[in-house]
Amino acid sequence: MSDRKEDLERQINLTFAFLSANSYSRKFLTQAWIRDNVGDYKGLSDTAFRKKLQRDFAYLRRVGVPIEQFMVTSGVAEGQQAYRLAQDSYQLPEVEFTPDEAAVLGMAGEMGQNQELGAFARSGWTKLAAAGAQRDLSTSTAITNAGDLGSLSAKTLDAIIKARHVGKQISFNYRRSLTDPATIRHMDPWGLVPERDRIYLVGFDLDRQSPRTFRITRISDITLGAESTHPMPEGTNLQDLVRAQLRTKSMLIDATLRITPDRAVELRAAGVEGVDNTWHFSDVDRDWLVRTAAAHAPEAIVLEPQDVVEDVVALLRAAINEVA
């Protein structure tokens, strides 16, 4: 993942932390809380942490997230410097988009705007504090793959953000795949998390009585329900929760491939080069790896794990049978 994408994910998670604080009991965040609970701040020296945090604050303010700084005058954090959202400045008027308008807004941006700010603003997440655009929006690219962001409707996004803001449960239709029938699920939403061009709704599954993630493109018809009963626990890292559940479902894997030099650029961009033309992949999407390795065969050969080797072979055989 590029440094800029890591910055965007951290800034998104920081914005969600402020939303959570405002929705529940904390109302503000201290530097110590941010350092312990928001990813990518841990392990930094005091000076590096403060510099990175101030850079993130400056960026969020530039794109419309109004963060206030003040001194706590009472309670356990008395005397500490703290931060909160200026809620009166963070309200949007009622806006409705047709699906076509939402799609256009998702790709359109003002000419001459800073590209990194444009990526955040064009995505529709800026003032809604949801997730960040993870696309290559360079001027040399005429068409880009927006991933889940490209198919996320304004109606779905608005319902989730509204539920988080007012502390309500939600219900929605969920399909495990495009061919499966929809089932009604109930959740206390905690946040939206971008992960490898996909977006996941994370929260407490009221049907399963445990934290759970749902891919945003598989849910529809969201309605608000009763008051939330399972707020996000202190210290929860939503990014880690998504990755852990994906790994549990064997959707994220580690793998080793042998790739012919100067071939399979897409694969090499996602891996780390080893010796003898081997490339090592960590926490990659399993389905993506199977399809991409098959597409680049024989220049790309999966060495391990064995089940992925077998799936690539099966996919290639199926392709041969279709044209035979």
Automatic annotation (TrEMBL):
Signal peptide: none annotated. It comes from Corynebacterium suranareeae. This is Transcriptional regulator. InterPro entries: CBASS_pafABC_assoc_protein, WCX_dom, WYL_dom. Residues 156-223 form the WYL domain. Residues 253-319 form the WCX domain.
